[in-house]
Design brief:
32 strands, 21% strand, Agenet_dom_plant, eight-stranded mixed beta sheet, zinc, 25% helix
């Protein structure tokens, strides 16, 4: 026993001789990228030169067709790689090398791909380091989370390899194993509950001052992780309890015990995030990334742009998800920046940037819209059903004793309408009644008698008897007037003002933020179909990007009364999604925050949906969007904004964002308007004509860093697809 112990000590003290040099000229290697947007990715290449503590590597993926412009990179190596040191830096828990041999191929058993296992995913000519983020061991497609970028990707298991670390000094490979952070998190989930999602825990932890001790996400020192997770857990728990917010696990447990009819608005699950189509490890939501995901553009495709003055000046670059990589400065530019780089104007830059096959980027967007029109023409949008009266109140969205409209399928509680008794005879809901006489016995326009027909205001959609209008104005309405008719001069001014705002990018200060109001382009506004296609193409792509962000941020919940019924075809006023505009907040062409808004005349505008991408939360982006939107609505003469707030977000809306709860008596002012409201939400309003301006906050270049430590957003939604939302912020904005 003693002899064996002494032998072990001798072996321990024996000095290991320096190892041989590795990664010599001709070696096949992988190099880790340090570029923003490419963090955590390994690109393959070959060593073409070797020096002391340095290797020159030629990247396989960046060789031009004519053999020029090959991308070469000088990469520093450790002393162990150069054979100058017997130590193994790769044995340290926080070590992360920049270059390695190409890992050996290992056969993968799908059952090995456990939740939290460190893996590499092959995507766009690179291997991206991540972790398995689902528990579907028998599935052919798995969800992988990429901690470097904070995003996730659904991918086929054939694109996955188990991560193995290269021990540089000994030239051996060992499995990285499970992510230590998730191992610690799982222990908390077993013993307690998580007040926020696993993703949010990771985002918060990375902002802690002590994270520099961990240095890299694959650090294997679980003691360090336990300390950091404990601090992050306590902070989020304190916030959750102080805001009267039940943890989701408890909400889910209570929901099982209650009636299945109860909730239509739920907190987002803490253990999963909805997969998004075309998702990419930190996939920037830009026009280029969307076209790449639709297989219209190829990543790294060559593009060029000539200045407006013509001549030999030619800007050349390559397509990336974030923008266009300019060859002359080796930097990423927005579409506007790339065009103006060589003297071009930024009017419709997509039309001026061309691929090698001669197509412009605008042509690519028109191509997508052409495909959409063909699908629309072949699809039968009729479901063949006749839907009777609604089974819930159009105002509060709850069932019970309802009175039914004799003109439309809508139903109402007597109390929600401010009535005390059930009306005798035929009864028509406020939306079906004339805005002049208040009567509701209306008939559809049969084209023969204008005395019994109705007409809708082109802006506020309020109904009017043509007979009442004739008596008031003393003239008949012509066919042209009937198509684009406004009930008041104010509605016409609002509509004209919205048309002037549509599609225009408005710069917000020095943070490269832009505000844009969008709506699908009406083909009736263009006599030339080709002109309409060009006008609608960019609009269509951006609206689809906004929809992707909505699906990324929100967890859809089926309407408990309609189930899978396609609400986009509903005759119910409470499920009427017509007339909405989409508001975009972008930074360098990348979509950050999106909201929906509908304007009901001069009295009120509703904002039922707001979404901020995960990577940009805690930066005050929603606050910037709401401040700018308020200013634009104020310029149009709108009196107030209305939105549905979940109880956990009420303090924020009524605090820093200066909204007020609407009283029951005030709600009666809006019975003529049908808002996109949701169960268990609290209707809030903000009078904007007399509110202080938010312009100074928007234009400040120091806004983002000042807000970063104070603002916390989390989204809640309902409904199937186009759902309701409020964003929750903790702390002062």
């Amino acid at each position: 026993m003693s002899s064996g112990f002494q032998d072990a000590r001798k072996r321990k003290c024996k000095k290991t001789p320096p190892s041989r040099r590795k990664l010599l000229v001709g070696s096949r290697v992988e190099v880790r990228s340090l570029e923003d947007g490419l963090l955590g990715s390994w690109y393959s290449g070959s060593v073409i030169a070797s020096g002391t503590r340095m290797r020159q590597v030629r990247d396989d993926g960046y060789v031009d067709e004519d053999g020029s412009g090959e991308l070469e990179e000088r990469v520093h190596v450790s002393r162990a790689v150069d054979g100058l040191d017997s130590g193994n830096p790769s044995n340290r828990s926080s070590y992360r090398g920049r270059i390695r041999l190409v890992p050996p191929s290992l056969a993968i058993n799908p059952e090995e791909l456990l939740y939290g296992l460190c893996v590499d995913v092959y995507y766009e000519d690179a291997w991206w380091e991540g972790v398995i983020f689902d528990c579907c061991e028998d599935a052919k497609e798995r969800t992988v989370f990429f901690p470097d970028l904070g995003d996730e990707l659904g991918t086929d298991i054939c694109n996955i390899r188990i991560t193995i670390n290269w021990i540089e000094g000994d030239d051996i490979w060992v499995r990285r194993g499970l992510w230590s952070f998730l191992k610690v998190i799982q222990e908390y989930e077993r013993q307690f509950f998580l007040p926020v999602s696993v993703k949010q825990m990771w985002y918060d932890l990375r902002q802690k001052e002590g994270f520099w001790k961990i240095k890299v996400w694959m650090c294997s020192d679980e003691i360090l992780w336990e300390k950091m997770v404990f601090k992050t857990f306590l902070e989020n728990l304190t916030i959750a309890l102080s805001s009267d917010m039940l943890p989701f696990d408890l909400v889910r447990q209570l929901a099982r015990e209650e009636s299945a009819e109860r909730p239509t608005c739920v907190l987002r699950p803490s253990k999963k995030v909805q997969k998004t189509l075309g998702c990419f490890p930190y996939n920037p939501k830009t026009v280029l990334s969307w076209l790449i995901d639709k297989d219209i553009l190829l990543p790294r495709a060559k593009v060029h742009c000539r200045g407006d003055s013509g001549g030999s000046n030619l800007a050349e670059g390559r397509i990336h998800r974030e923008g266009v990589g300019c060859n002359c400065y080796n930097t990423l530019l927005t579409l506007d920046g790339f065009v103006s780089h060589f003297g071009g104007t930024n009017h419709c830059p997509a039309a001026k940037i061309r691929l090698e096959d001669g197509r412009s980027l605008l042509d690519c967007q028109v191509q997508v819209l052409h495909g959409k029109r063909k699908i629309d023409m072949t699809e039968d949008t009729s479901d063949g059903k006749i839907h009777k009266n609604d089974c819930v109140c159009s105002i509060c969205h709850y069932g019970g004793d309802l009175i039914l409209s004799d003109q439309c399928p809508s139903s109402f509680h007597i109390t929600c309408l401010g009535r005390k008794d059930v009306p005798d005879g035929d009864w028509y809901c406020p939306s079906c009644c004339c805005g002049i006489c208040g009567e509701g016995k209306l008939k559809k326009d049969n084209g023969h008698s204008t005395d019994v027909s109705t007409i809708n205001c082109y802006q506020c959609k309020r109904k009017y008897h043509t007979m009442c209008l004739r008596k008031r104005r003393g003239t008949e309405l012509g066919h042209h007037t009937r198509r684009n008719w406004y009930c008041s001069k104010k509605c016409e001014q609002i509509h004209v003002g919205l048309l002037e705002l549509e599609g225009k990018q408005i710069s917000l200060g020095t943070d490269n933020l832009t505000f844009t109001l969008l709506k699908p382009v009406d083909y009736e506004r263009h006599d030339d179909l080709d002109l309409w296609m060009i006008s609608a193409a960019e609009n269509y792509v951006k609206l689809n990007i906004a929809l992707d962000v909505m699906h990324e941020c929100f967890e859809p919940v089926k309407d408990p009364y309609l189930g899978n019924f396609d609400v986009s075809l509903s005759e119910l006023n409470r499920l009427n999604f017509r007339g909405f505009y989409t508001v975009l907040l972008e930074k360098n062409d990348e979509l950050i925050t999106v909201a929906t808004i509908r304007i009901h005349g001069e009295k009120v505008a509703e904002v039922p949906l707001v979404a901020t991408r995960f990577q940009f939360r805690r930066l005050g982006m929603c606050h910037i969007l709401m401040d700018t939107l308020e200013e634009k609505l104020k310029d149009l003469g709108l009196e107030r904004i209305i939105l549905p707030a979940v109880p956990s977000a009420l303090k924020t809306w009524t605090g820093s964002l200066r909204f007020m709860k609407i009283t029951e008596s005030e709600k009666l002012q809006f019975v003529n308007h049908t808002f996109l409201n949701f169960q268990d939400t609290i209707l809030c309003q903000k009078h904007i004509l007399n509110s202080p301006s938010g312009e100074s906050r928007v234009s400040s270049g120091t806004l983002l860093p000042n807000l970063a430590d104070h603002l916390h957003e989390s989204a809640v939604i309902t409904l199937d697809g186009l759902s309701a939302v409020s964003e929750e912020f903790e702390g002062k904005v």
